[in-house]
Amino acid sequence: MRFLMTTKGGGPAPDEAMHIEMGKFVEEMTKAGVLLATGGLDPAGTRFTSSGGDLTITDGPFTEAREAIVSFALIEVRSKEEAIELSRRFWQIVGDGVGDMQQVFGPE
Amino acid sequence: MTSWDAHAAVDGVWKLESARIVAGLVRMTGDVGLAEEFAQDALLAALERWPESGVPDNPGAWLMAIAKRRAIDHLRRAERLDRKHEQLAHELTTQPDESLDLAPDGDEVGDDVLRLMFISCHPALTTEARLALTLRLVGGLRTEEIARAFLVSETAVAQRIVRAKRTLAARRIPFEVPEGRERAARLSSVLEVIYLVFNEGYAATAGEDLIRPGLCLEALRLGRVLAQLMPGEAEVLGLVALMELQASRAEARTGPEGEPIPLHEQNRGRWDRLLIRRGMTALLQARTAGGPLGPYVLQAAIAVCHAQAATAAGTDWAQIAALYDALFRVLPTPVVQLNRAVAVAMADGPEAGLALADPLLAEPAMRNYHLLPGVRGDLLARLGRSTEARAEFERAAELAQNTPERAILLKRAAACGGRDDAVTLGHAVAAFLDRADLDAGTLRAYRHTMNRMLAHLGAGIPLPEVTAERVAELFAAAWGGAADATWNRHRAAVRSFAAWAARDRGWHTADPAARLGRRHEPRGRTPALDPVFVEALLARPGLALRERTLWTMLYESTATAALALSLDIEDVKSIGGTGGTGGIEDIEDIGDHTRGTLWGPRTAGLLPQLIAGRRRGPLFLADRRPAPARTPPSRDLCPETGRRRLSYERAEYLFKQASHGNTLYQLRLTEPAATRRPSPS
C-alpha cells in the first residue's frame, strides 16, 4: 500500500548536519525499495477556490506558513505500521515540526 | 503504546529489519536454521518488551543485539567454541552494551543481505522451497502469510522451509555470492525466484482473485533491493524494469467483476505513470550497464513499447515482433513462441501469427496451457473461422484454472455465434463408444484413444475439422515416443473411428487417420519361451494346482496375467468353461472367441479342480490368510476360506523361481506348439 507523507512549514531551518542525515535516510529508503518519490515544495503556492462556477486564483505566499506543505514523500510499504515506523525515523532526524501521513487509495 | 497496536508495530519494524538481522546471523553462525531461530528469539523479546517500553530509538540494532546475544549463548552451550567464536564472544561480552548498537557499516550489511538472497535461491532447493525460504528470510514474511499468498496450508509452507534449511546445512552451501561462471547461473536462479513471486501475484494461477498485489509488491521490493546491491547487473535492472512496467498496469488489468481485461482493451489512463517512469529509468540503467541483451531486458523493452503507445492502435507491433524474435533467440521456449505469434499477428496479420502458433500444438509442454487455445481462438476469430474459434475458446476455458479468466473465455466462445450443423467430435465419439457390437476390451482401448483426442482437440470441434494434420500432431505429442505397438493400437482406433463415421453414419470427415503411418513392430524384443520348456514346466511333478492352472491359462490364451488374476469364480461361471469334467454347474458352451481370449481346453480341464466347490470370490487365492491389519477390500477376499487374492508380485515371483527368471509376460507371448490358438470365427 502507498502512503503520502507531507510535512508542514514553520519548523526550524535545517542545518548542514540534518541535510546529511536526511540524505542518508532517503538513500536507505530508496535502497530498501520503499521510497517511490520525494521532493520539496515551494510554500508560496497558488490557490484555487471554486465556488458556484467561479474559479478564483490567488498567488501565495499566504499568511499561515504552518499550514503550507513544504515536502512530500510517496512510499510503498506492506502495512500502516511499516509506514509509521518510517515516519518515526524521519521525525527523529527532523526534530520539531508537524506533518501528515495519508494512505493513497489503489492496489493494496 | 499509543493509538496503534504494539504487536503490529513490532511486525512493521520486523519486516523492515529482518533480512539484515537474519543475514548478519547467518554470517556469524554459518547456519540458516540457527540464524532464523535466534532472529525469532529477538522478535519474541521485542513482542514482550516493546508494549511496555515503547519502540527503541534504533529498533534494528536492538533486535540485532538480542539475537547476537542468543547466538553467543548457544555457541557456548553447544561447546562449539573454536578460536573465532571465542574471540567474538569475548568482544561481545567485554564491550559495553551500547557498542552492540553499532551496526557494521552499510555496505557490509548490504553484502550480507545479498548473500542471503543467493543462499535462499540456491538451485539445490526445489522451486517451491526457494520461494518460501526467500519470502521468509529476505521478505520477513510469516509462515501463515506465505501460506495465504500461495493458497497452501501453513504446514506445507513450514515443511518446505524446514526441508530447505536441512538441505542447505547438509550440502554445506557456503554463505557467499559466487564468482566466475557459477555467478551467472546462481544470479539467474535469484532472478527467477523473484519473477516467480511477482507472477504468482500478477497472474494468480489459481483461486478467485486475478491479482494478489501483496506478492507483486514483495517481488518488486526484492528486485529493487537487489538492483541497489548489484548496481552493474543489466539483467537485475531489466527484471526490475519489467516488474515496474507490468505493475503499472495492475489497476487497468481487471474490470469491475474482477475479469481480466486484455492489454489492447485496457484504459491506458489508469496505467500508473510513476511506475512506468521508474521502469523506463531502470531499463535505461540496464542498457547503460551494457552486455548482451538478456531475457529480462528484452521483455522490459517490449513492455516499454506498450507503455509508450498512447493507444492500442498506436502500438509499434513491428518493433515488438522484432524484440520477440530476439527474445526467442535467447529464450526459445514455447511460451515465448506463443507471444511472438501474437506480436507477429498484430504486425503482419492473423494468418502469419497462426503459422507460428500452430506448431505449438505438437509441444507436450503446451498440452494443458490454456493460453495456446486462447490465442488460437482469437486469431481464428479474426480470420472469420468462427466455428473453430469457438472450439478453441471452449477448450481454453476448460484448461484455465482461474475463475474470472474462465468466465471471459466462455464469453468469447459464445460471441463466436451459433454452430453450424456439422457433427462435433464429442457427439461422434459418444456415439462411436456406445456401439453394442464391440467387446469390452476393444471398447476400453478405443475409449483411451478417443479421450485423448477429445482432451487435445476439444469436444466442440466439428468433425470435418478433425483433420489429418491435427490428428498427426496429437499423435506426435501424445505417443511420438511410445512403443510401436502402442502407436499402432491408437492408430487402429482412429482408423476404426474414421471408417465407422464415414461408412456407418455417412458423416463428412476429413480422413483423420490419413497421415498416421503404421509402425513396424520389431518382434522378439521380449522373447517368448520355448513351448517345449513350458510343457516341461507344466508337467513337473508336484507343481501346485494353482500355478499349473494360471500358467496354462496364460500359455493357452492371450489373457494378461493381471486379467487372469482379477478373475472371480462368478466370472468363470458366467463365461462358462468347456471341457469341464464336473464341479462347475451352470456350464454353458460359449463361443470360441471368448474362450480363445480367456482360456483354452486344457485350462478348462483344470478350473473345476481349482474351484473345488467354492461358489464365489477370487479364482486364484493366496496360500495364507492376511494379517488382521492388512485385510484387503472385500472383493479381494474369499468369503469361504478367508484368504486373499493372489497378488501379481507373488505370482510373478513363483514363475520366475520355477522358470529360471522368465516372466509371466513371456509366458503369455508363448504359443502352444502343437495346438495353435483357435481363431475367432
Describe the structure.
The complex is a heterodimer of chains A (108) and B (681). Chain A has 108 residues and is α+β, with helices and mostly antiparallel strands. Chain A is 29% helix and 36% strand. Chain A contains 2 helices and 6 strands. Chain A has helices spanning 16-31, 80-94, and strands at residues 2-8, 35-40, 46-51, 54-59, 69-76, 99-104. A 4-stranded antiparallel sheet of chain A has the order 2-5-1-6. In chain A, strands 3-4 form a two-stranded antiparallel ribbon. Chain B is an all-alpha fold and 681 residues long. The model of chain B is unreliable at 95-103, 577-596 and 675-681 (pLDDT under 50). The A-B interface holds A 28, 30-34, 36-37, 74, 76, 78-86, 88, 92, 106-108 and B 4-5, 8-9, 11-13, 15-16, 55, 57, 59, 106, 110, 211, 213-214, 216-218, 220-225, 228-229, 250-251, 272, 274, 278. Chain A: Belongs to the YciI family. Chain A: Pfam families: YCII. Chain A: InterPro entries: Dimeric_a/b-barrel, YCII.
Structural features:
heterodimer; A: about 110 residues; alpha+beta; Alpha-Beta Plaits; two-stranded antiparallel ribbon; about 30% helix; globular; B: about 675 residues; mainly alpha; Serine Threonine Protein Phosphatase 5, Tetratricopeptide repeat; 5 domains; about 60% helix; YCII (chain A); YCII-related domain-containing protein (chain A); Dimeric_a/b-barrel (chain A)
Q: Looking across the biggest beta sheet of chain A, what order are the strands in?
A: 2-5-1-6
Instruction: Describe the largest sheet of chain A.
Output: 4 strands, antiparallel
> What is the first-to-last residue Cα distance of chain B?
93 Å
**Which chains have the largest interface?**
A-B, 24 and 33 residues
Instruction: Tell me, rounded to a whole number, the average pLDDT of chain A.
Output: 86
Pfam family, one (chain A): YCII
Family (chain A): Belongs to the YciI family.
InterPro entries (chain A): Dimeric_a/b-barrel (IPR011008), YCII (IPR005545)
Protein name (chain A): YCII-related domain-containing protein
